[in-house]
Amino acid sequence: MQVDLFDFALPPERIALRPAVPRDAARLLHVDRSGMADRVVAELPSLLRVGDMLVFNDTRVIPAQLDGRRGEARVGVTLHKREGPRRWQAFVRNARRLRDGDVVAFDADVSARVATRHTDGSLSLDFLGEEPVELLLERAGRMPLPPYIAGKRTPDARDADDYQTMFAAQPGAVAAPTAALHFTPALMAALDAAGIAHRTLTLHVGAGTFLPVKAEDTDDHAMHAEWGRLDPATAAELNAVRAGGGRVIAVGTTSLRLIESAADEDGTIRPFEGDTAIFITPGYRFRGIDGLLTNFHLPRSTLFMLVSALMGLDVMKAAYAHAIENGYRFYSYGDASLLLP
């Protein structure tokens, strides 16, 4: 499909720079086959059914952005995907100044050696020393806010909490699974009381989620792989929910992409551990999920293509036009939509 089919005009003032307070006070656009309605996230228990199950991504965002030097050259590093105990693939600003074997010095006596240059322009870096890389990043790194937020204000101490979900447990993401940012302990208690269960999986979100689609046709766009795990017990529970007439509702496109990666053609969800580069566009037949709670996405992005595949391009263009006209807030810290095809 032509990528420009997924374009739309978004006024810059619609981009949220801070999350709603409290988190579940964010607005929620409810879209199903009967139309759309303006709600708030705290109303979610009344919009789902007894026996439904929400699936959250329990990845934890790491301080994945670093500023460094190689001689007189300044370089900016955004870690993307872990490749080994001390090796990370990274997108590097000013990468043309680096060669294989060069050592980049970061703050707090942290350094890394260039190991490999990839065809997409990214580099693999080996962090030096004996300390665990996680400790090095805590010293030298900072929270990797999306460019559409960091370009408008300076990241600060609030973001260390604001950009983590209440489910964050498994370190490794360089971007938050932002749909889950709307959930609070009070909301989870209300969902439990309403008979709506929840489970978690892990998908370590990479920096590739921010990259624009530069191809003119979706067939020519290559997705970056991300590592995920869906354990056998969770897979069995998701299958049991659907067998019993309940719905599996993914919270966030990351949860959806992993479930779909784990699902067979007949809809059976299998345990999964490894990389996925699944790219979902209109025409895709969903196998493992029955709905999605997600934020509002960028024009021409793979995520807007995904929601258009779920609900139909015309439906999503109408929903986004309604959201823009009615003051919904977009992107990572913005409002949400509940999509039930």
TrEMBL record:
<dbReference type="InterPro" id="IPR003699">
    <property type="entry name" value="QueA"/>
</dbReference>
<comment type="pathway">
    <text>tRNA modification; tRNA-queuosine biosynthesis.</text>
</comment>
<comment type="subunit">
    <text>Monomer.</text>
</comment>
<comment type="similarity">
    <text>Belongs to the QueA family.</text>
</comment>
<keyword id="KW-0963">Cytoplasm</keyword>
<keyword id="KW-0949">S-adenosyl-L-methionine</keyword>
<dbReference type="InterPro" id="IPR036100">
    <property type="entry name" value="QueA_sf"/>
</dbReference>
<keyword id="KW-0671">Queuosine biosynthesis</keyword>
<dbReference type="InterPro" id="IPR042119">
    <property type="entry name" value="QueA_dom2"/>
</dbReference>
<comment type="function">
    <text>Transfers and isomerizes the ribose moiety from AdoMet to the 7-aminomethyl group of 7-deazaguanine (preQ1-tRNA) to give epoxyqueuosine (oQ-tRNA).</text>
</comment>
<protein>
    <recommendedName>
        <fullName>S-adenosylmethionine:tRNA ribosyltransferase-isomerase</fullName>
        <ecNumber>2.4.99.17</ecNumber>
    </recommendedName>
</protein>
<dbReference type="InterPro" id="IPR042118">
    <property type="entry name" value="QueA_dom1"/>
</dbReference>
<keyword id="KW-0808">Transferase</keyword>
<dbReference type="Pfam" id="PF02547">
    <property type="entry name" value="Queuosine_synth"/>
</dbReference>
<keyword id="KW-0328">Glycosyltransferase</keyword>
<dbReference type="GO" id="GO:0051075">
    <property type="term" value="F:S-adenosylmethionine:tRNA ribosyltransferase-isomerase activity"/>
</dbReference>
